[in-house]
Amino acid sequence: MNKYLFSLTLASGLLCVSVVALAQDAAPGESYFKQNCATCHTIGKGKLVGPDLANILQRRPEEWVLKFVKSSQTVIKSGDKYADSLFQAFNQMIMPDQPTATGEVVKNIIAYINISGKNPGPTAKAPATTSPQTDQQTGKASGSFFTTTNVILFSAIFIMLLVIVFLARVNKSLVEQIRDYYSSNKSFF
Length: 189
Description:
Blueprint: H1 2-36, H2 56-59, H3 62-70, H4 72-77, H5 81-89, H6 103-116, H7 148-183
């Protein structure tokens, strides 16, 4: 019985650590976003000077976001149709280059956006363009399955399943003990 309890505790601890690690990635992203991005972008509140960034990874792959944040004009001048359509849709407002935004910093910003965008309000519509991230039959963006919300949800489901298995084993053990007690003709008093 103790080995099952130990396994349950270990698995729950590992899941909690992974969820906490995801949340910690968002903390540095939050400060950078508020200092450098929030004047032009919102998360789930519609467009401001630039587009709303809620669900950004459902519209563009992470590599594209990394390049665009580093130097939006480089991406636009490379002939990227989506980047050009954003540039046109937002009155050719140039997004300042972010040379201090390393790949890790941008990933932390994306983690913050994912956590903050859990309950987005009305979002700005991005200009319609075709991209490799779009399902050709439905026209819907195909985002990553491993979003923060999905990780937390599946972690909670996994923990609940472990608790159910643990309780089933405890129940079985108690039933066996009760049967043994009654078969031994002992009295409660």
